[in-house]
Amino acid sequence: MNPQTEQWTDPVACLRQALAQDDFTLYCQPIAALTGSPVYPMAEVLIRLCEEEKALLPPGEFLPVLEHYGMMPELDRWVVRQVLQRLSNGSAVPRFTINLSGQTIADPTFPDFLANEILDTGVAAEGVLFEIDETDALALPSSVARFSATIGSLGSGVLIDGFGRAQQCLASLKLPFVRFIKVHDSLTRQLGAGDLPAGKLDAILRVASSVGVALIAECVEDPDMLARLKAKRFRYAQGFGVSAPRPIDAISRRSLMLAAA
Predict the structure, then answer these.
(1) What SS3 class is residue 52?
(2) CA-based Rg of the chain, rounded to a whole angstrom?
(3) Per-residue confidence at 109, pLDDT binned at 50, 70, 90?
(4) Would strands 236-237 and 246-247 be described as parallel, antiparallel, or unpaired?
(5) Are the C-beta atoms of 94 and 127 separated by less than 8 Å?
(6) Per the domain annotation, does 81 fall within a domain?
(7) pTM for the model
(8) Which of 96, 34, 110 is nearest to 248 (CA)?
(9) Of 131, 121, 135, whose CA–CA distance to 171 is shortest?
(10) Contact 35, 241 (CB under 8 A)
């Protein structure tokens, strides 16, 4: 059932019911290593909502509603529990990246929740990496720095998503426990199209290397792009040219890894 239709007379109650009944479902999109192994060292967690007709609603249909009612921390906690459960059962993908909303980043109780969940499941904290959008990293510097330091002390870390859109993007690299940055596709798509994108990418590569942060290229669609990224010494890539999103249980099974190899 679509939370933006008139059928949802009480969207908060309906969405809380969806969380309680596990009506959300998780997909993942692998992130490939361009050198070395494993083939898929990470996978980004994606979320869908099951309708009564068993159709899957994309996040654009329900995330704005959750954000409007301040419910993103509840959803993010649900996602963390689901991911840690998969890791505790044994996963062929050793690390999952989880997108966090600005509401969750600003929630001072979230790191304690995460610490308790990691302790309860016995999962190594390095098995989860938290994606923070560059917009949030720059708009909420104090909250992001506090969050990064706290989860870093647990053994987890941060991935800055959509990196390179803002003029002051390099400022987000100064945050503690930033392990990876995912370069925005507006830069990676233009590789080979001129000197300006390549020059900006070279600057990002130099700074990232100097502070020990690895680069992930997003929206990689074809082998030519992969070849150009390897030439630029990118370490990771993600996109339909690498793998389409799949259900999380299919991603975590070892059969996927064997097929990729």
Answers:
(1) coil
(2) 18
(3) very high
(4) unpaired
(5) yes
(6) yes
(7) 0.88
(8) 96
(9) 135
(10) no
